[in-house]
Amino acid sequence: MAKQQDFAEKVKKAGLEKGIKCKVCGGQKISTLFINSIKSGAGSYRFNRVQIQVCKCNEKSVYV
Ligand SMILES: [Zn+2]
Question: What is the pLDDT of residue 25?
C-alpha cells in the first residue's frame, strides 16, 4: 500500500534527522512506531503503539 509506505518513509526521515547513533553497532538509530497486537479477552485484540529506536541490532526483530 502506497500510503503506508509514505508513512514509513516519513518516520524514517524523522529518525534520521535526530541522528541518534547506536553504541553497539555504530549505526544510525531510526525512531519508528511499532504496533503491537495484544490479546484482550476471547478473540479480540487491542493495538498498542510504541515508539522504538531501530538499528541493526534489533531491526530483524522489528521488520519481520
Ligand atoms: Zn545497534
Answer: 95
User: What is the rounded distance in angstroms from the CA atom of residue 47 to the CA atom of residue 27?
Assistant: 29
Q: How far is the CA of 22 from the centre of ligand 1 (A)?
A: 5
pLDDT at 43 > cutoff 80: yes
Q: How many helices (H) and strands (E) does the chain have?
A: 2, 3
Percent above pLDDT 90 for the chain: 22
Q: How many Å lie between the centroid of ligand 1 and the Cα of residue 42?
A: 37
Q: How far is the CA of 3 from the centre of ligand 1 (A)?
A: 28
Question: How high does pLDDT run on average in the chain?
Answer: 82
